[in-house]
Amino acid sequence: DAMVIQNPRYQVTQFGKPVTLSCSQTLNHNVMYWYQQKSSQAPKLLFHYYDKDFNNEADTPDNFQSRRPNTSFCFLDIRSPGLGDAAMYLCATSRDLEGREPQHFGDGTRLSIL
Amino acid sequence: AQSVTQLDSHVSVSEGTPVLLRCNYSSSYSPSLFWYVQHPNKGLQLLLKYTSAATLVKGINGFEAEFKKSETSFHLTKPSAHMSDAAEYFCVVTPSNFGNEKLTFGTGTRLTIIP
User: Fold this and answer.
1) A84/A81 Cα distance (integer angstroms)
2) What is the DSSP code string of A37-106?
3) Which end of chain A has fewer CB atoms at under 10 Å, N or C?
4) What is the mean pLDDT of the segment spanning A75-82?
């Protein structure tokens, strides 16, 4: 089945130690998104790629970066994680940016900061 | 500007009884509306979507929702709750004539099923 796969499912890192989360998709969608979701809250969009075009949300901290080396893969890099960055990180894809297109989500990576 | 209000943060129903999760929206443009479900430690799964076709939308797992423009509502219903329906539900709106990166999430409704 075509899907969005996130690895790892659980990630533990130390305060200030860089960490990378990965996402891959077999849907061949043009758009990939990264969301941060804290406990009992709705997901919050960090940024998205339309093909190779990167779009950062205005309130996404500089500590968060992303790479999309090809259509299938997208990475979230947190350069110096703080305790407030502990959250579930969700990757999603959509075929394009048309408002009627639903987004397809992976199962997320739960990040813990020691 | 657009917004979504999920009127109940928590709903509890007995197994086998109807489910109603309420969602009201506001949008300056013709909206697309979605309901997503999130089980614990999982991503969001699309239940159903409204994109200006039929106002009564049928989704997966027996859920359906009715778009009522006059009431600016998109409530989610299911005739008979099952234990596996216990999850968090998000109502989402996006203006059809903009990109879906502008989608707006409701704050979520946690559905509990009582055996």
Assistant:
1) 8
2) E-TTS--EEEEEEETTEEEE-TT--TTEEEE-SSSSEEEEEESS--GGG-EEEEEEEESSSBTTPPPEE-
3) N
4) 96
**Considering CB atoms only, which of A4, A92, A99 is closest to B99?**
A99
Task: Determine contact: A7 vs chain B, CB below 8 A.
Answer: no
Least CB-CB distance to A94: which of B41, B100, B106? B100
pLDDT in tens, B65-105: 999 989 999 999 999 999 999 999 999 988 765 565 577 89
> Vertex A53, ends A48 and A54: CA angle to 5°?
40
Q: Is the dihedral of CA A108, A88, B12, B32 positive or negative?
A: negative
Verify whether the Cβ–Cβ distance A31 to B97 is below 8 Å: no
- Which residue on chain B is closest to A57 by alpha carbon? B101
For residue A11, the SS3 value is strand
* pLDDT of B19: 98
As a whole number of angstroms, the distance between CA A87 and CA A34 comes to: 12
Residues 6+ apart with CB under 8 A from A58: none
CA nearest neighbour of A32 among A20, A42, A45, A19: A45
Say if residue B31's pLDDT is above 90. no
